[in-house]
Design brief:
Chain lengths: 113, 210
């Protein structure tokens, strides 16, 4: 069995596979640069989120890495008082509604729902 | 589902979560859109294993630089303009005929970004993180890297504060090569330690491939 399947040529490998991965990545770097948390705190949050996902049954093959990254970011912003779970849930719902209320092909804006 | 033009299909839950958090942080002025775009642009296009290859090839051709690199890698690479932004220290570990070095981050994915860009998927996987420590030789074998039994394998576990870069052995018959030629032989994987630098004969292939 190959444990590290499909090791792609480094030239061909995309840095981010989806725009949301890049967004989540950039938020962490930007918050860290602003001093919102230390890199040590970030690494601790990320490894905690990875081990929680493994315990919940994620085979953790590296494919779900940015899911762990996002979960760690959400948690860390909450523990640092930069966001709150209810606020994030409400905003998520607003975005969903905004999509549903926007005719196809038009830019999605909050508050249109 | 019928195709309905009166609305736009919402994206996945993950995408909505990121949009939610991003829009909240933007509103609160905790991040700004230009900074976010610059970060993405930098990591997608500007930071990558070429930086590390530059450092390795320079070390192969410039003994004083190599000495400085092995003594204090953070300052040596900073002199070339490579600065870590996460406040991390860099240590360069040298492969020799008797010791081969392998880098891992057992807890998450700490990695010398400034030198190599962001890590490949397999580096972030649980099997690599565990097996690099418990059975490094068989991990190397999966990458097609066979070392003599007499070679010791030293595994370095990265942390948020300390990142490692492997200085691979210079391939045979490249003593008279210049830095630019040598750079082409330095793969990302050789600087993580899962492979060796490409042999001298690989340069023709590299030329043909690119």
């Amino acid at each position: 069995m190959r444990t590290f399947p499909g090791q792609p040529l480094e030239q061909d490998e995309p840095v981010f596979r989806d725009p949301w991965e890049a967004q989540a990545f950039s938020l962490v770097i930007a918050l860290h640069r602003k001093g919102a948390f230390s890199w040590d705190e970030w690494a601790a949050a990320l490894s905690e989120s990875i081990s929680a996902a493994q315990k919940a049954g994620d085979p953790d093959t590296g494919e779900t890495y940015y899911q762990h990254w996002l979960a760690a970011l959400e948690k860390l912003t909450v523990s640092k008082g930069l966001s709150a779970p209810e606020e994030m849930a409400a905003r998520k719902e607003s975005w969903r509604q905004a999509y549903l209320a926007t005719p196809h092909g038009q830019p999605i804006e909050l508050g249109s729902g | 589902m019928s195709h309905d033009h009166d609305h736009t299909e919402p994206p996945s839950d993950l995408e909505l979560r990121v949009k939610a958090l991003e829009s909240l942080l933007l509103e609160k002025g905790l991040v700004n859109p230009d900074a976010l775009n610059t970060i993405i642009e930098t990591y997608e296009h500007k930071v990558g294993p070429r930086n590390g290859a530059h450092v390795v090839a320079k070390a192969w051709t410039d003994p004083a630089f190599k000495q400085a690199l092995l003594t204090d890698a953070s300052s040596a690479v900073a002199d070339l303009g490579y600065m870590g932004r996460q406040g991390e220290h860099l240590t360069v570990v040298e492969n020799t005929a008797s010791v081969h070095n392998l880098v891992v981050c057992t807890l998450c994915s700490c990695y010398p970004w400034t030198m190599l860009g962001l890590p490949p998927v397999w580096y972030k996987s649980a099997p690599y993180r565990a097996r690099a420590v418990s059975e490094p030789r068989s991990v190397l074998a999966e990458f097609g890297t066979a070392l003599p039994e007499s070679t010791d394998i030293q595994v370095w576990d990265s942390t948020s504060e300390m990142r490692y870069l492997v200085l691979p052995m210079q391939p045979a018959e490249t003593e008279d090569w210049n830095e630019a030629q040598l750079q082409a032989l330095v793969s990302r994987n050789s600087m993580i330690g899962v492979e060796l630098a490409r042999p001298a004969t690989a340069l023709d292939q590299v030329d043909n491939d690119s």
